[in-house]
Amino acid sequence: MKNELNQSELNESELNENKLKSGLWVSCDKCGSILYIKYLKANYNICLSCDYHLLMNSYERIKFFIDLETWQPFDETLSSGDPLNFKYKKNYKKHLKEAQENNKIQDAIITGTGFIENIPIALAVMNFNFMGGSMGSVVGEKITRLIEYATIKGLILIIVCASGGARMQEGILSLMQMAKISSSLRIYQRQTNLLYIPILTSPTTGGVTASFAMLGDLILAEPLASIGFAGRRIIEQTLNETLPDNFQKAESIIEYGLLDLIIPRFYLKPAIYEIISLHKKGFFSKKKILPKKLQISMNFINEEKNRIIFNKVNKNFKIKFNKNIILKLNKKLFNLFYKEILLSLKKLYLI
């Protein structure tokens, strides 16, 4: 009798596994409830048993946020290379190709423009299902291009974050995206007074948290979203301590001022609409004119020029830009750095 019961339990578990694999059912990451995928999708991927917010892919997010037939995607064909010829268990090119085929996108983010209740916005949505939402050179480039476009067009910017951090397969090229995005965001926020809202979903960690996820004018998060830099397991192993259950959860982080609002997914679009409509009516909604030098695509030379210019030029852009100013500033900086290098070399020589 006991063997028969065990066998029936095994058959039931196998049946459940087959259902899960077939895409008809999914288990909740928190309570373990088996959920019918059709009802789960209708409920915006929120568990029907415990209200836990499960992952949403990029297309689901866009469908949820953007008004019907208003979405205009950017840079859909942009794809990563393999600059390091990275190989660990699996070739990076092969890994990338598999992720592209499984998710029907070229990389871990989709960018574009659309409308929320007839208000135009620039939107970027990260996809955690694509290699853990890792930020490589394509993710950084697409976000930067979107920010530049939003800056020129005067659009409100929203980025939905879901990432494990920088993509190790691309090495320093992935890490430099942090500074690249942050510098373009500075121009967007400080020089044009436009509104940037990051929405942190579970998980948001690593280099994404350390850069654009925490640079918003208003930082929103979903309930129980895991937000941090290093992972929980790594911290526990380093400190040899058991961390509390709410560690790195949105509800805990908001107490320390790192978040502004925690909004359930049901109310996220209405809340965003209220915020951006309020901003549109506000004093700072007046669009400022950008200098012509900024209305070109960014590269490392232009980024450096803009950084120098913004440190020297009046905020209202009343001073005219010309090549002589840039050259003079560059010479001054070069002389300054040259002196610093000489001093450091002398110190090393003395040691």
TrEMBL record:
Its EC number is 2.1.3.15. GO terms for cellular component: acetyl-CoA carboxylase complex; chloroplast stroma. The keyword Cytoplasm does not apply. Zn(2+) binds at C28, C31, C47, C50. It is found in: Cytoplasm; Plastid, Chloroplast stroma. Keywords: ATP-binding, Chloroplast, Fatty acid biosynthesis, Fatty acid metabolism, Lipid biosynthesis, Lipid metabolism, Metal-binding, Nucleotide-binding, Plastid, Transferase, Zinc, Zinc-finger. This is Acetyl-coenzyme A carboxylase carboxyl transferase subunit beta, chloroplastic. The lineage of its organism: Eukaryota, Viridiplantae, Chlorophyta, core chlorophytes, Ulvophyceae.
